[in-house]
Design brief:
This protein is an alpha+beta fold. It has one domain (5-152): ph1033 like domains (ph1033 like fold, Roll), CATH 3.10.590. It is 22% helix and 32% strand. It has helices spanning 17-23, 34-43, 114-119, 142-153; strands spanning 5-10, 25-28, 49-54, 61-74, 98-113, 137-140. The chain has a 6-stranded mixed β-sheet. It is globular, with a radius of gyration of 15 Å.
């Protein structure tokens, strides 16, 4: 079965591509949006490609590549009282929230900015380029992933 591609957003002051490079792998927990949760629970598989996107940055954009290292599993922080991701409605028997693990692949020399994404031929349909697009996990077509990867490998901003 063909691997899928994703764009995953994170604010760099919370966790950056350089943090992922240092750590090697990390759990992507704390997602509290049902559509993004469904992607993690139902669709993201080990080996899928990830465009790592720095949001609320100057500039916001894709800063590197990762891969899904572990498919969706229940977000353990939803059960941890006192944790910022705790949700009393989620239980071990009936989990609501899910995590995936991602592994570092590559940091780009610069950022492929949102403005560059918006102005690059072949990326017009990317969800992230649409006004009001706030979803933290978005599916990306393979051709879009490849274009962004090429742009990133020659970026220097």
């Amino acid at each position: 079965m063909a691997k899928r591609c994703w764009l995953m957003k994170c604010e760099p002051d919370a966790y950056s591509i350089h943090d992922l490079a240092r750590d090697g792998t990390t759990s992507w927990e704390g997602v509290r949006n049902y559509q993004a949760r469904n992607f993690m629970r139902d669709d993201m598989k080990k080996g899928d490609g990830v465009l790592f996107y720095a949001s609320n940055a100057a500039p916001s954009g894709v800063t590197g590549l990762a891969t899904i290292a572990r498919a969706g599993y229940p977000d353990r922080f939803a059960w941890k009282k006192g944790h910022k991701y705790f949700d009393e409605a989620s239980t071990k028997d009936a989990p609501i929230w899910y995590s995936v693990d991602i592994a570092f692949v590559e940091a780009f020399p610069g950022t492929v900015s949102l403005e560059t994404l918006k102005s690059t031929r072949g990326l017009e349909a990317m969800t992230v380029t649409r006004k009001g697009s706030r979803l933290s996990i978005q599916p990306v077509m393979k051709v879009e992933y490849d274009i962004v990867t090429r742009l990133g490998r020659r970026s220097s901003s």
